[in-house]
Amino acid sequence: MRIVLVGPPGAGKGTQAAYLAQNLSIPHISTGDLFRANISQGTDLGKQARAYMDAGQLVPDEVTIGMAKDRMSQPDAVNGFLLDGFPRNVGQAEALDVMLKDEGVKLDAVLDLEVPEDEVVKRIAGRRICRSDSAHVFHVTYNPPKTEGVCDACGGELYQRDDDSEETVRTRLEVYHTQTEPIIDYYRVQGLVVTISALGKVADVTARAMEALKPSDEG
Questions:
Q1: Contact by Cβ (8 Å): 9, 176
Q2: Order of strands, edge to edge, in the sheet holding 28-30?
Q3: Where does the pLDDT of residue 58 fall: very low under 50, low under 70, confident under 90, or very high at 90 and above?
Q4: Which of 56, 128, 135, 172 has the most CB atoms around it within 10 Å of its CB?
Q5: Distances, alpha carbon 39 to alpha carbons 76, 78, 142, 157, in Å
Q6: CA 212 to the chain's CA centroid
Q7: Can you say whether residue 80 is alpha, beta or left, with left for phi > 0 and alpha for psi between -120 and 50 degrees?
Q8: From the CB of residue 128, how many other CB atoms can be counted at a distance below 10 Å?
Q9: DSSP label at 200?
Q10: Measuring CA to CA, which residue among 1, 3, 23, 5 is closest to residue 198?
Q11: Cα-trace Rg, the chain
Q12: pLDDT in the model for residue 218
């Protein structure tokens, strides 16, 4: 299967992508991983991306598209893939269509993880991270520490990252609505969009997604 995963920040895309890719036996291709791999390996595209990032500029679509094209051409992606974070806008979606058409293949589904905006804010703004070990993450509602502001694991101070503040989260949501959400309508015209609720337990959301993808898988 060839799937694009979309949804607002805080929808749990990374978590769901990992489970779905494993269940479907296809590689999970995330934009973040593409950038890290290309930069660490010193590829031409990685060097270009690094230059823009070091200058505090957005990496142009053509660089991101080039990385995605290279990754999708690798042997493990021949029979399918799950794209997470790409395409990020309609221009990238159009480029992806051209890439796939050139290869004689097409997308099977665009899985849209739906989460109410207030829930997104609650999920992200409620995160607290240990200053001593950032692997220790808590949530004021869903996974509170035994003692407020103190890490259960090591006793370190818990804090809220700047980019987890409610104001920043709402800004990120606005960017999503403006730049990324339009790809849902773009793909809906092609009959590819499958929308599911991303509320509830991780396993329940995964099961919901697998069930929603069944018709495409069988057809």
A1: yes
A2: 28-30, 81-84, 2-6, 109-114, 193-197
A3: confident
A4: 128
A5: 21, 24, 35, 33
A6: 19
A7: left
A8: 22
A9: S
A10: 5
A11: 18
A12: 46
Residue where the block lists tokens 């004689």: 104
Q: Measure the CA–CA gap between 166 and 162, rounded to whole angstroms.
A: 9
Task: Show the tokens assigned to 129.
Answer: 């991270």
Which residues are CB-neighbours of 106 under 8 A, at least 6 positions away? 2, 100
How many percent of the chain have pLDDT more than 70?
Answer: 98
Alpha carbon distance 21, 43 (integer Å): 26
> Residue 140 is encoded by which pair of tokens?
């004021």
H-helix or E-strand spanning residue 156: none
Annotated catalytic residues are 13, 88, 127, 161, 172
Helix (H) or strand (E) holding 51: helix 44-54
Which of 140, 138, 141, 121 minimizes the C-alpha distance to 130? 138
Phi, psi for residue 9 in degrees, rounded to 5: -55, 140
pTM of the predicted model, to two decimals?
Answer: 0.89
